[in-house]
Structures are given as C-alpha cells and as structure tokens.
Design a protein that fits this description.
- The structure is a single chain.
- With 119 residues, the protein is mainly β.
- The protein is built from 1 helix and 15 strands.
- It has a 6-stranded mixed beta sheet with strand order 3-6-9-12-14-15, with no helix packed on it. A 5-stranded parallel beta sheet has the order 1-4-7-10-13.
- A hairpin with a 2-residue loop joins strand 14 and strand 15.
- The relative contact order is 0.15.
Length: 119
C-alpha cells in the first residue's frame, strides 16, 4: 500500500545507513540486496538494481555522502565510493572511485569535485 501511494519501493532487507534522504516523490526503486552508506541523497526516478550475468551478476554497494540525481540508474555488482555525485539521467554500470562526479550513458568521470555541496 505504501509503495502504491508514494511510488517508492524500498524493501526492508536493503541495507541503508543513517540520514538517507529521498528528495522527491515517485519512481524510486531499490533492490532488496542493495547496500547504501550513510548520508546519501537520491532524487525522483532513481533505480538501484541488479544486472550482469553469472559471477558478475549483482547489485551496487554505495558509499557514504553519495548524491544520485533524478532518473539516474545504478546497476550491477559495482562499488560507488564515498562523496560521489551521479548526475541526472546517468547510467552507472562500472565502479566509481570516491570524490568523483559522473555523467552520461554510460556514465564517465567528468570532475573530481564529488558531492560536496549537494548533500
């Protein structure tokens, strides 16, 4: 009932740190096995999900102080470091080291300024 009324799907089995913030209503999907660190912010339309084949199949592990922009998709057995900013409408399918800004489809590093000021 809550998922229908809010448009947000966050299973209780997802490991989410303190101070997690969903900025806007709707379209948020988080896989039940996702791991999200402390003080992370996500916008509307974000998907954190499963992808890959065989031994590379899995869900993301997201660090602390990460900002996921509107309609971004983060999928697969990847690691997103601390203080990362994923810009709006980006597709992240590879690891992102800490303190980077990524953008695009597929996402590439565009800056080393990180998420400071967005969280």
């Amino acid at each position: 009932m809550i998922e229908i009324s809010t448009g947000i799907s966050i299973p209780s089995s997802a490991a989410i740190g303190h101070s997690f913030y969903v900025g806007h209503f709707g379209g948020v999907i988080i896989n039940a096995k996702a791991i999200i660190g402390n003080n992370c912010n996500i916008s509307q339309g974000v998907t954190i999900g499963v992808s890959g084949l065989n031994e590379s199949r899995g869900v993301p592990r997201i660090g602390n102080n990460v900002y996921l922009g509107a309609n971004s998709v983060v999928v697969g057995a990847i690691d997103i470091g601390d203080d990362v900013l994923v810009s709006a409408c980006s597709l992240v399918v590879k690891n992102v080291e800490s303190h980077h800004v990524v953008s695009g489809v597929p996402a590439v590093i565009i800056s080393s300024k990180g998420s400071k000021g967005y969280i």
